[in-house]
Amino acid sequence: MGMSVWKLVQVAANNRFVSLLIVATSLSLIIFCSYLPSSSDQDEGGQNSGIHDLIPPSLNTSELLAGWNSNVSMEFNTSQLNESFSQEEASLVVEGIKETPVQMTQSSPQCDIYSGKWVYDGSYPLYPAGECPYMTGDFNCKGNGRQDSDYTKWRWQPTHCNLPRLNATDMLERLRGKRMMFIGDSLNRNQWESLLCILSTVVPQDRKYFGRSKDGGATSFVAQDYNCSVEFFWAPFLVEQDSINVGNKSKAILRLDAIEKHGAYWRDADILVFNSAHWWTHGNKEDSRYFYMEGDYLHPQLDPLVAFKRGLTTWASWIDQMIDPTKTRVFFRGFSPTHFSSRQWNKPKGYKCNFETQPILEESFTNPYPDRMKMVEEVLRKMKFHVSLLNITTISDFRKDAHPSVYTLRGKKKLTQEQRNNPDKFGDCSHWCLPGLPDIWNELLYNYLLTLTQTYGCDFPSYVTGEKNII
Fold this sequence. Notes:
Elements: H1 5-14, H2 16-35, H3 61-66, E1 93-95, E2 116-120, E3 154-158, H4 168-174, E4 179-184, H5 186-199, E5 208-212, E6 219-223, E7 228-234, E8 240-246, E9 249-255, H6 260-266, E10 271-274, E11 290-294, E12 297-299, H7 304-322, E13 329-333, H8 371-381, E14 388-390, H9 393-397, E15 409-410, E16 413-414, H10 417-420, H11 423-426, H12 437-450
Parallel strand pairs: 4-7, 4-10, 9-11, 10-13, 13-14
Antiparallel strand pairs: 1-2, 2-3, 5-6, 6-7, 8-9, 11-12, 15-16
Helix pairs in contact: 5-12, 7-8
């Protein structure tokens, strides 16, 4: 019955080099996989040193549809805060630049996924424009009258690796039995709605649910056949917010050291995607829209960027203390750039982003890396919990063509022709059309999730981090 065992031994003996190579390779794989930590191998801070296990307890959608209990008993030690955190042709491409030394753990270990170019691809978008029922009217640019469509056909191409096209069925399988939650402002809602539009294309109408939880905390999309939910929680500052009457106006008070009330809604999710930054920089030190409070102390004046860093540090400390690294994967999505000045792309007589139909073509026209992102990186590096940074800032800065501009809503109504004729006043150069750029953000997120089951062939639903890098 074929070659005998003895014959195999003889062949192997005559090919000692091959035999030794096989033995050495096998031993290397065994040793490598044995050194990957299990969910019980944690460092002194409770942080898993290399593995983030995403196999949570079963999620019961019948319970989910009935609403969640937000009365979570938690203890959050604010004393541990560190105050020292004081795209007409198919060949047309837009060159990208290296943003930060982010090393992706994937088939090409040297690939910086944020170093690349925008490539026009006629196979995009990932879902039909104007037909998704889950997008806010503000983002439905085609439905609001935009006639061009090239802005939907650009994809990001890293230089040294390929960014997988988002496969909705595969992503739902990876989300099976899990809660995924986006937390932040309208830009995070922009990305959340993009993901719902993508995933819903493969879920039968009678097998999906969309609505607000009974406790009013989050708005959710539930794919019942996959026993999973994708949710959004409004928290533009992440930290808690109160208000006070000043004259005839109400002014917000941001509690820079308080987050546990919000956190009660997030704690049991399996995948968390945060963002914050835009709302913090409204106004300046002397004329801010907000008051800032720490404990019982109300700051008479505080630089908004300083306040942002302190609030972000509170969030980071809460993540370190309250989130289980063996159960939950945490992402922070970087600052989404705006295009309110056409001087940026050497068009001084332009109307902000309005009437722009191509991305920025020259790297030199992109903005410097913002201070807010430097603050985010600094805070993330000091965390015990490994948070993955979706650093979309510079690659998005090329996309002056992708904003709603005058194809948005005001008071839930389309702009009148008179309003469209005044783009400087009514154009939206902050949010993004759907389909469009946020779909690519979700492809980046999908790439991270793929690494959970495609890392080095070892039988772990995980990824390897190595040093304390932001990846």
